[in-house]
Amino acid sequence: MRRIFIIDDCEDDCEALARTLKAQGVDQIRCFHELPDLAALEMDEHGLVILDLILGNHTDGLKVLEQMSALGLTKTPIFLVSGVMSNLLQVAESYGRARGLTIVGSVEKPVCPSEIARILPLR
């Protein structure tokens, strides 16, 4: 099974998403409640990053996308989530793609199991 990285400042949301992924058969999940050292993570095209766009006071998802692009993580699939308006998600998708990133989709929170089932084949 491939690794899935969840970056979400809301611990409850992150853990709920991890439980949903585990119920769908995913066994390698890492949750981060603040921005991890992206360079130290072993991200590649076989993994998946689930990224919340609003990360509290630390940073925001757009900055994470910038960092991923600067690190050359262009083949790592990224799925965006947010509790904000869907038009912001669309802007973030375009922003990431313009930086050469592999944005595989987005959804508003709360993320339901059917949305997880939809993105799992993309790993």
TrEMBL record:
Any GO BP annotation = phosphorelay signal transduction system
Keyword Protease attached: no
For whether the record's keyword set contains Cytoplasm, the answer is no
| Stretches assigned to the Response regulatory domain | 3-123
Q: Any idea what this protein is called?
A: Response regulator receiver domain-containing protein
The uppermost taxa in this organism's lineage are: Bacteria, Pseudomonadati, Pseudomonadota, Alphaproteobacteria, Rhodospirillales
Which terms are listed as keywords in the entry? Phosphoprotein
Pfam families attached here? Answer: Response_reg
What InterPro entries has UniProt attached to this entry?
CheY-like_superfamily, Sig_transdc_resp-reg_receiver
4-aspartylphosphate modifications at:
D52
